[in-house]
Amino acid sequence: MATNSPDEKWSTAEEEIMEATYQTLLVNGYAGLSISRIADEFGKSKAALYYHYDSKDQLLVAFLEFAVDRFESMISTETGENPTEDLEHVIEKLLPLQPDEEQRQLQEVLVGLRSQAVTNEAFREQFTRIDERLATTLGKIIQRGIDEGMFRDVDSTRVAEHILATVNGAMYA
């Protein structure tokens, strides 16, 4: 059973499972996702997946955390010294104006997973954590812009929450 916190490093096996899960979701969507298909993409048995995760839902909760870890890592390496550009960059990554095929498929996957959060408490909790982490990332950029005199003085937390709500509304509408 995997119980990684956001601060823990993912093992090589877990990273490979997450990549296999991602590829399987892109090809099959949430509705066509199964442990068997993930195991096939992973190149190992279902037992190898069950060694790390007790259920498909537990694997998907971990996948969502892994995806956010990757996103935050990418954002931290791609942002610079200009809060305006950084904010535009993060928003563009969250909601591309002209998504390529993979980005479109990923949005479909996220919509499918988020729709399960209505009835799946573990998914709902994970999406709540994801939204909190993304709002924190946006809030830090906004606060940096305020501190540097590039943005007017606003409640950075509230503005970040509004931006995230707008992005989510556009993505999941």
Largest sheet: none
Overall pLDDT level: 88
Radius of gyration: 17 Å
How large a portion of the residues is in β-strands, by DSSP E? Answer: under 5%
Secondary structure class reads mainly alpha
> How far is it from the N-terminal to the C-terminal residue, by CA?
34 Å
Key traits:
single chain; mainly alpha; 173 residues
Please describe what this structure looks like:
The protein has 173 residues and is mostly helical. 73% of the residues lie in helices and 0% in strands. It contains eight helices and no strands. Helix 4 runs parallel beside helix 7 and helix 5 packs antiparallel against helix 7. The longest helix is centred in the C-terminal third of the chain and has 27 residues. The two termini are 34 Å apart. The N terminus is likely disordered.
Brief characterization of the structure:
The chain has 173 residues and is mainly α. It has eight helices and no strands. The longest helix has 27 residues, at 121-147.
Question: How would the blueprint of this fold be written?
Answer:
Elements: H1 12-28, H2 35-42, H3 46-52, H4 56-78, H5 83-94, H6 101-116, H7 121-147, H8 156-172
